[in-house]
Amino acid sequence: MRNSASDAFVERFTREFEAQHTDVRLDVRVQEWTGIGAKVTAALKRRHGGDGAPDVIEVGNTQVPQYVDEGGLLDLSLESARDLGMTDWLPGLAEPGVDKSRQYGIPWYAANRVVIYNKDLFARAGIDEPPRTRDEWLDMTRRLDTGGTQGIYLAGQDWYTLSGFVWDEGGELAHASAGTWTGALHTPAALRAMDFYQQLQALGDGPKNADEEHPSQAGRFAKGDIAQIISVPGAAQQIIGENPALKGKLGYFPIPGRTAARPGAVFTGGSDLVVPANTDDRPGAVAVVKALAGEKWNTDLARTMDYVPNKTTLADAVAGEPGVAAMAVGAAHGKATPASPLWAKVEAADNPIKSYMSRVLSGADPATEAKKASREITRRLDDSGE
Asked: What is the pTM of this model?
């Protein structure tokens, strides 16, 4: 996909792979994320692969359940267990690739949210160590939220961040039972998560009725009066681009957990590799997947693109980059959205999780609004269309 790997990485990989596999030639075709779902579905439905059909496809980790449901992916369980060290994979990449104990999606790379902070504002508040627990985080953010400084800029509809708090509490966005999905925002665990989100969000001036991109939280942080945001480390490039004076003044730490023994759970974004069942060259396709997902090329990609490698055991490969190192800590406890092939309907323009959050932050009763949101999630995940 566009911007997933640099041209230099693709050239290095192609050159070495073809030298080691003289019977295989690679034809790497870059795709745009916009509209990719329909293109992948069409490719998987071909009776035979044929010329121009993909033998290996990069897909978003949360997209894998949809393609598994359509029945067009090759079962790679044997290779996962025998050759790819699946026991060390990041759960947020691996779990969406599983269906009925069979592995279809092979983890490739990950990215997730961390806390980006302004070192000068922390020093001014007398804070020299990042928090390790949620309680410490709240206390510290209250100290930062004084005068003309916002303790944290947290948009009211940042539902990916809320998801991590839900998982920390032992809850889920939706539960599956006998193939039926049910919304779960009304459960005690999810309500505790919303309560914590509400406390944290109040320690800044983030909008209650918008998400983190409207306006851009990185743009707001660049003004220099915000102590913290929750974002991927790559946002630092935009921040420094808008305010070069902040170069060297940004720090990173993993989102804190309920206890110091474990960092907070995070939504893990990233990509998996899949092989269409209609491939004309299964051995070649599997060889490509094994190489890209293997230690050598996976760590090369992570260092090149500032990603988290696909295994917890490879985290040291990015230890020298503070933002990526903080991501790797969180990724070890990351998760993905519910593995329903219909989950995209929940993330539509009128996402019920976002509207639920805004109503609660604006003063509505959390339990009542959570039940409404859970019912809407259940309705959207109902494959009967009722």
From this structure: 0.94
Question: Which tens digits make up the pLDDT trace of 9-36?
Answer: 999 999 999 999 999 999 999 999 999 9
Exposed / middle / buried, residue 113 (Cβ in 10 Å: 0-12, 13-18, 19+): buried
Which phi and psi angles does 2 have, rounded to 5°? -55, 130
E runs forming strands in the chain: 57-60, 98-99, 102-103, 106-111, 114-118, 174-177, 180-183, 228-231, 250-253, 266-267, 269-274, 334-335
Backbone angles phi, psi at 133, to 5 degrees: -130, 165
Count CB-CB contacts under 10 A for residue 168: 24
Q: Which amino acid is at 299?
A: T
Does the CA dihedral 366-371-375-381 come out positive or negative?
positive
Peptide bond into 215 cis (omega under 30): yes
All residue ranges of the chain with pLDDT < 50 are none
Buried b (16+ CB within 10 A) or exposed e, 342-367: bbeebeeeebbbbbbbbbbbeeeebe
CA angle at 58 for the pair 52 and 64, rounded to the nearest 5°: 115
pLDDT of the residue at 50 = 66
